[in-house]
Amino acid sequence: MTALLILSPLIMLAALGAVWKARPVHAGLLLALTLSLAGMLYIALGAEFLGLVQFMVYVGAVAVLIVFALLITRPRDEIEEIARRPKSVGPGLLCTLPLLATLLYTVDRTLPEAPPGTADLPVRRIGELLFTTHAPAVLAVAILLTAVMLGAALFAREPSKKP
Amino acid sequence: MAEALQPHLPTLLWAIPLLPLLAATAVAFLPDARGRIASKLAIGALGVSCVLALLATACTLTPGVDKPFRLTTSATWFTFGESALKVGVLLDPMSAAMIAMVTFVALWIFIYSTGYMADEKRFGRFFGFLSLFCGAMLMVVLANSLLLLFIAWELVGLASYLLIGFYFEKPSAAAAAQKAFITTRVGDMAFFLGMIWLYRQTGTLLFYDGGNGLLESAALASLAGTTTLGGLTVSAAAALLLLVGAMGKSGQVPLHTWLPDAMEGPTPVSALIHAATMVAAGVFMVARVHPIFANGDGVTTALTATAWIGGITALYAACVAVAQYDFKRILAYSTVSQLGFMMVALGTGGVGAAMFHLIAHAFFKALLFLSAGSVIHGCHGEQDIRKMGGLSKPLRRTFLAYSIGMMALAGFPFLFSGFWSKEAILHSAEIWPGGKGPFALAVAAALLTAFYMTRQALLVFFGKPRRPGVEHPHESPGVILVPLYVLAAGAVLLSLIATPFWPWFEKWIDGEAARFHGGAFGEHGAIGLLILSLALVTVGVGAGWAVYRRVSDDSGAPDPLSGKLGPLWRLLENAMGFDALYQKAIIGPLAMLASLIDAIERGILVPVMAAGETVLKAFGRLTGASDERGLNAGFDGACSGLKRRAAGASGAQTGRIQSYLRTIGLGVAVLLVLYLWL
Amino acid sequence: MLLTLILAPLAGAALLAAWRGAGDRAAGRFAAWWSLIPIVLVALLGFRGANPGGAMAAWSLDWIPDAGIALTFVVDGTSWLFLLLTSLVTTFVLAISLQKGLTSRSYAALILVMETMLLGVFTARHFIPFFLCWEMTLIPAYLLIRLWGGPNAPRAARRFFIVTLGGGVCMLLGFLALQIGVGTMDFGQLAEMASKGDLTKTLATAFAGTALTGPTLLLFVAIAVLLGLAVKIPIVPFHAWLPDAYAEAPTPITILLTGLLSKMGVYGLLRVFLPIFPETFAVLAPWLAALAVATVLLGALAALAQKDLKRILAYSSVNHLGYCVLAAAAVVASQGDRESASSAISGAFLQAFNHGIIASAMFFGIAILESRSGGRRGLDDFGGLRARVPVLCGLMGLAIFASLGLPGLSGFIGEFLVFNGTFGLLPWAAAVSVLGLLFTAVFLLRLIRKVFHGPLGEGLSTWPDLSTAERWLFAPVIALIVIPGLWPQVLLRFLNADTLRLLDFLKP
Amino acid sequence: MNPLAVLLTLSSVLFALGLFAVLTRRNTILVLVGIELMLNAANLNFIGFWRYGPPDPQLTGPMFVLFGIAIAAAEAAVGLAIILMVFRHTRSTDLNASNSLHG
Amino acid sequence: MKTLIAQAAEPSLWSPEWLPLLPKRLVENLLEHFNAPGWLVSIGGIAAGAATVLAVFMTAFALLSLIERKTLARAQNRIGPNRAGPFGILQPVADGIKMLTKEDIVPAKAEKLLHLLAPILIVIPAIMALGVLPYGREWTPVPLELGLLFFFALGALTEVSVFIAGWASGSKFPMLGAMRAISQMVSYELPLVLSAIAVIMVSGTLSLPEIVAHQGGYHLGFLPAWHILTPWGLVGGLVFFIASIGEANRCPFDLPEGESEIVAGHMTEYSGFKYALFFMGEYLGLFAISGLGVTLFLGGWQAPFPGLGFVPSWIWFFAKLAAVIFLFLWIRATFPRLRMDQLMRFGWLALIPMSLLTIPAAGIWTLLHRAGHGLIAWVVTIALLVVPFVIMTVLFNRGLARSNRTYRFAES
Questions:
Q1: Across the interface, do B656 and D22 touch by the CB < 8 Å criterion?
Q2: Cis-peptide into E252, omega within 30 deg
């Protein structure tokens, strides 16, 4: 609970920064921060495995990929980059705020008293489930990832310069 | 020796036909340039087969046993449904005599061929085909199953086809090959039907199978017990069908026409296939299934038919042979005639006589053909006897061998196997209770045989060389001559084992021990028959001598007889017009029928189909048009109106995803607000 | 495994479709190699053998359970034989197309699609997948004839398509009637009902309004189904589409048509029609036997009158498949003569298989002649070729002799079994049909004489003999002609159990 | 205070922030950042309900998160690859620059 | 956070096996003696344990910086540092003093905060990673249940910090260096993790002490049951080793900081203490990853021969670690630096396929061993690994011979 109370505001702040920061790289790094904080939150909640996976995948792969892409696609003049605050904030807020309000309202209204819950996430059990109950899903994800790997490599390849 | 061999006999028996077949297969893969190797391979395989065959024959000579030696093996070839089809080999005196003869004669003909065909481009191929033939022929004689016999029978036909068509560049050879195959196939189809009929009736195709075989009592009783159309027993009907098969193969009238044409093949082929062995397969087959033919009371329909057909063939072919000019054609017709003799013997119950004549004929007819080959070889390929004459000097050694064969065929007394075998046949025909017709026909044929052989001998070897004719005839090399003498010796020596004094051969075939019997001539009027034979030979040879003693030197001069016989001569010259008859009565109508069917196909069926198609097409056009004019037009109009109106509305589409998303989001937000708060 | 087998060619076709940059030869080579996959799978199935229930492999999916429509595919020995034939012939066709420079990407892909459909037909045990595959073979076949065929190909292809489609529609109508009347289109269930005699009763109740009796109704249904099969086999007089289609199609495709497509008809007749309509078939049997005899004789005689080598062989195919129909007619006439009936059934299947192989070899020979002579294939265009191309002549001769039923080669076994079975049951039909065997020999030997024998024809003196590639292409087919001829058990062992099972359905 | 409520609030806020980023950021990559945030919010929910829900031997929540993470990685990779391709064409990552589908 | 409590009843405080835990236990005993609360005791214990590890590796770091220079010098026929102290043994001290006293320069265009953060972010994960390794039978500073996963998760952080370092410097060379470093680390992290998966499959656990325990015992009485001595383990270990060279940016994969091309990569704009931190981070990372390699494949603290159990287990660990580190140095002295495209090509086309192959091989190995077919397992796994290896070698070499030289990553 303590960790939750400490981490939640941090996560929100970091996420806010990721959304609002003008420089894309800052936003990307803040996303990494957000995600790693979320990973810590998972660990604090007892899901160490998920937390560590979150670290590995989100921080180690996704976030890095994003900042990497940001670097590659840097525009020629950096002034343009600085000017890129979020645009049409009004409509954005108009969409987002009712949603947020609804969500919070619903949480507030419908939530029963939380039971003490279980904090045990046995990795062995995860493994068993993955390769028994969820084996087809694992297979599907494996195929998906392979396809993604090949596809991404194909997409991102420099178009071959034919004479 | 024979005892030591006994346990291995089944294997050895299979090996006898398979060795030449394997050699043929191997030769098939050799290139043409390796002809010498091919010939050595073929001769080697056949030599081993020959040794094995003689050993096997030796095994059947067990004296003192009062029932025929019979060794059978069988194995399941395939199963269909629950039924198994068995094939096997059979060794009894009949097949033993045949394998010994086939391998021995064939071996010498092989050797002869290495000389005769030496200049041939496709030398190796030739030996491959010969090997194939020998293997198949041996399979025919060894088969213990009608099916296996039929299979080998057809393979023999294939080999014959290939060898007749060996000079396929010649259209006549190609046509002769096709004719041979198709004519024999007519018989084969009857054989096929007969075989299937027997199989359906008895459930087996094995000849001897420990009491369950086709030729054993149970099956025979079943065959005789069922009658079919025309009041014939199944036995008779099937036997007649088999007889048709035998007629095709053995060139009996009216399926004989292919055999003279088959002389288009190389001479060794004529000797081996179309004189000694294959054409005798029909006779052998009838002899093999003789129990079916003779299945019934007394003189059965099948036997009668066999005897009459044999007699007619014998006389017919002898007549035709008188009026031929081609060296080999004369011999071919003589073969047909002699096969007729064998059929007479079979029809009149003389299986032993028929088999003996078969073996003896194989020797002396092979000898005659080989001599003919030697003559043709020496005359640079000339085959017309009118252009020869006086060859006894330049071709003295050939002439010697030829004269032995000629005398055997003509039935010169005592020293020659032909005399004794013909004697036995006439004897069998004479005592036949079914009538004297076949006997009379055979006697007439025997007379003519002596006549036309004398004619041939005189025209070819005596007198002076005719002009225009053969220039510089020369003697053949030793490799050609040695086989001649070997066969000549055989033709003479065979006469020792089947005289009435010591009828060893016939008894052996029947499975009895032979005794020396000095008084044989005293029985059944045999002495009279002997005198008749002597008279026939004398008259025949004398008449020949009288007519052809002095023939003009001009090779263009007509035959002395042609003037006297007039139109009859021309009829004989054309072999009584069988070919023309078939052309008009069968081939022509068949071709017309085929064209008619083709015309119906193209003229009626296809137009019907096309008409149906047109109807469909018209329907399609109609619906298409209605779609085009009616439905589509209306739809297009509606669409274009809609398009115009839509153009105005498309301004809202900015192409910016986020503006779309925002719109969606606003919508969702409004919905949420409505849903939750109102 | 079965599904993999059926879909493997389709996957190959899909890959070809996706491979945009493929050159013609590359595509052809790919397809030929790819088509080895079904062969390997079929061989594996064969090695695995059948389980006691008789099925080597099975796959089923309740596709539309409400309508009782299931995608059921089963391989038993008989199906296996046809699968083998299909996979072998397809590979052969792809290989010779490649060798003759005919292939292109779409060509190879269409052939592969066709293979999948054929595999489906030969394994389907429910009418819906059966019929889907059955009709789907038409589209690739049509396109292949239409696009790669001779000058009159469009017309021939159109007729082929329309006539066979018409037959298919008849068949569909028949089975729809069964679906409406009986409520199932599963072959196994229908056969089960038929053997209990329920089919007639149920049909009569369902169509009570038509005032027709059950047997009459069943007769209509059976005739409708039979029409579809008759067009495909084809039985005289429904064969009119065939000579043109065979002659106009490019020769490899002709191999497909005769080697595989016509086998669908035979397969359907014996495996589908026979068990479901045994009694009706028995009523129809004399007529069918007459038609079969007509097919045999007419095919042979018509072949005698042809001048085009491919048309000769086309009619020869008609003739040979006539024996299969004859056997089928004999089977229903058996009335308990199990041995004859099993002989006829085995014979028909063997004949179908062997004809597929032999026809492949013969048409391949024609294809070689065509490519050497620049497209000529008239009977009189050649002559004396045996001197120039002895190997081709020898191999072609082997195929021809197998075709005319020379013992020791595969064609004989089928014919022997067919006649053996037929003679016991329909002796006259058998006796008359034997004439067909004779005529077959006549026109085939005439072919040899005109093409290979005699003096060398004009302009043929420069012909090369078979290349190594052509020899290797011939080799497997020739092996498949020789080996089953000497050792028929190699094929029959797959058939026997099924034959007996099929007979059990016919028990009165 | 109810820990679940805290978690859900957090996730709601994260989701809203992510949505806001998606709707307003002009750099396509940062739109992707927003999407990642939203996904993470969803994951957080799953974990929250697993942690403070009835015991579940099937571990549905964590399994879902696991797959979610894997698919998010895939989605990011493909998304970035697409963005790179677009960037090569237009030399810009501005989402509004790729509006060639406008009406 | 849950920890694996696997420590048995404690024997004498001074036994050699327990020697490394002495500080921790002393502090704990002391605190307990003063009746400190439980959490304080454990925190004190952890701090003392961490301090022990840190002290050990700081010393090792200092020594290694010297030994590396000495070894390289020997390899290049030089003498190496020999001025400070006997045999130059005081050289690290001298270096340290120099580093600390240098001016700390921050470029004008740099992002100040991130620029400061980067070196710290590099060191911290390295130290944390060192905390989970099992150094001895009784000595695992923080015995996590998910130790291996934890280790790799920390590895992810390194990439971010390298990126920050490169980007925050605000100049070209660090940027390029960072991009190289990241692409390299991402590429080489994959084979690293994949080859570890085989180990996880066979030992069935993510806990590092358990993995080491699993490698206890001897085949045939003398052959240690280390993973490296199985076919898949050999391949996996080699892949792991090569990938760890790449992951640690060591020669011949040291392109990100290749001085001849881009000065010093992402460290170009750093000086003084920050530079020292980077340096330290790299060396600690090297220790950590080598330690992990030793743990996963070389049997951790297990003795190489039976009968050597009397030697304290942590001595074995450090001996193996030293051997591996020496291998790193040796390779650095031997091989030339690769080109970027060669590096990527090698990583994706050679290491990843081979590491992928170890996974089925390990699976088959386990299954067959469970079924009792040890010999078959050898044959099958060897075939499974060798055949594709040969094929790949052929293909790889053929491709190399033909490929054009492209400098794709230098373009943008």
A1: no
A2: yes
